[in-house]
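User: Hey, quick favor. My workstation is busy. Could you predict this chain's structure for me?
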Amino acid sequence: MTPFEPQVALASLSGEADAAWARAATPFAGAAFLGGIALDERTRSAARELVDRDRTEFLPPDPVAFIDDQLRSLADADIRAGFNVRTATLEPLGRAAAVCADRGAILELNAHCRQAEMCAAGTGETLLRDGDRLCEQVRTAREHGATVSVKLRAEVAGVDLPALAARLEAAGAAMVHVDAMDSEEVVRDVTARTAVPVIANNEVRDRESVEEYLSYGAAAVSVGRPSDDPRVLERVRDATEAWFAQEAQA
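Assistant: No problem, here it is.
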């Protein structure tokens, strides 16, 4: 069981997923992952390079203060907030994790971004191939009191995603958030290897996509690009609630 209901989350969208975005979805989602945000100078430099080629990024003067401000503004919202973060170093991660812990929010580690600039900075997909560093980030965030999610991506060459998820659970992750890409059944493989809740992501739009992921054992689903479309969110919420209501009666 996930620590939010309904068992629908909003997946982070860099430069777009802020507190106003999360608040607008409160009728439909139980959780919202704000961000992503770059924490240290290496990832902030990469984010500036992304902006230079017309991508959107959050680049406040103080990223940890920005996290605190955004979470504080959601204190009265009926939604579990999380913040997706990218960092190659541990010190700012510890500070961000402490803020999330103080605000009752989830700290989500980004091992998902495939932009070349972020990978060169040592975060995003690079962390998928370096399980030791990713587990170290999980432990650091846990040591600062945060509930930790890890955003993962399927179809990365040389990465055994179910085995990595098991390692992340052992390091202290409370959940894993899996972008299945075009390999939806990887969700089943991950749920078979870990006892923590799995949030399934990628092309979640309607009853069929929801039921496919939940049939593979996902504890929740997340909506990405159409997360600002209430028609999509309503379909996903209704399908998710119907699935779990049926499961409870079985």
